[in-house]
User: What shape does this take?
Amino acid sequence: MKKTFPLLLATLIATPAFAGIMTFDALKLSKARAQYLISSETIIVKVKSQDKFVRNHSDLGNFSPFFQAEDGTWGYLKLHLLPDAFTAANIMAELSQDREIEHAYFAPIPKNASLPDANPESVEASYVEETPDFESQQNYLQPAPVGVGAIKAWDIAGGTGKNVKVIDIETCYEDHHEDFETPFYVGNNPRNCESTDHGTAVWGEIAAKRDGKGVTGIAHEAQYGIYGFIEGDLADVDDQYIKSINLAIQGAIDNLSSGDVMVIEQQMVGPDLKKYTAVEYWPHIFDQLKAATKKGIHCVQAAGNGSSNFDDSSYEGAFDLKKRDSGCIMVGAVGPTDKERLSFSNYGARVDVAGYGRGVVTTGYGDLFNAAPERKYTARFSGTSSATPIVSGVVAVISSIAKENRKKLTPKNMRDLLRQTGVPQGPTTRSQRVGNFPVIDQMLNKLRIRR
Assistant: This one.
């Protein structure tokens, strides 16, 4: 059935991106909603014919395509003016009459999926000649039920992640960190970021070197690649945010092969503009992630920190796997010891698996150790941002071991393995599903791989 679209992003407070054609009365818009509306001059569209769309709507603005799906072209329409509520309603009314358009909505923007108030501020550097070894403090490396059992897996052929590539889609990185190898791929890494800590922290969990100092990544011999961009907010919708995440996903698809891993460390606003959701909620991201998993790439994405139930009617089935499946693994957040859902984590039947959502020891920030920008470590990385790289590291290790044993694991196989194994979610929050905590040994048992 043909999907239609909401009239404007502001109405997503009450209406998701999958709603039918709506009527619009500008007088019913609250002042707050109107302010959200006029913050954007860019509309995301999916069109059947790019040429027809440009001919019919050139009066509105300039169209830039960014992804060719099987059933149309995704692009963004940069409006000639910053619309007020009345003008925006008229624009969307015009687009709603064009049957060549499958989707149209004001552009959401991505932000990283950390908890700004929970993660530490960087502290002043104090030079120390030798960096301590913090591996013993990385509880997520330990055997289950505390950790994923990474240390034991490193003794298995392929268990260090050496047979796979990983690309993380992020904000920014300290790519000269002492604990990192040279990345095999750098799609982008802005030098004008407010902070490089978030991307640095994610990298450390997955692929920091095991060199007797600092931290050790779960898949520390995996080849690591990065694509970073500066995050935005609702009051600052800009081309760079819209283009960046699309270019990042496409760059990952081009540079990864079947069995490799793509990590999505972003979240976007959902039906409630005050709450963040998983990026695949938005159709233009969903189509691209689906293209990645169709290629055999294991896509691991943060569920987001919106405290939302993905099974709620406001999502209109956007996260119902029977209706819509990108093939990605979606990650929620649990406490390190009790494995209970943390209150900020989104949840629901769509969420596959969970990782530590607080107290993660990794690179970046500097609250644990700070001798220079490239010698910073934290004990407080948090959010679905800290949970997602734990799962990503496990996926990289399992994929690498499977390749070593000439076993092919599709993205669906990997997701099923994560759902069927692991430490169960804590009983108090089990009705709010974020999934089991992954255990490498259990996954290998399921695969019947000898160790």
Observations:
- The CA atoms of residues 59 and 80 lie 8 Å apart.
- Confidence is low (pLDDT under 50) at residues 1-38.
- The chain is about 25% helix and 20% strand.
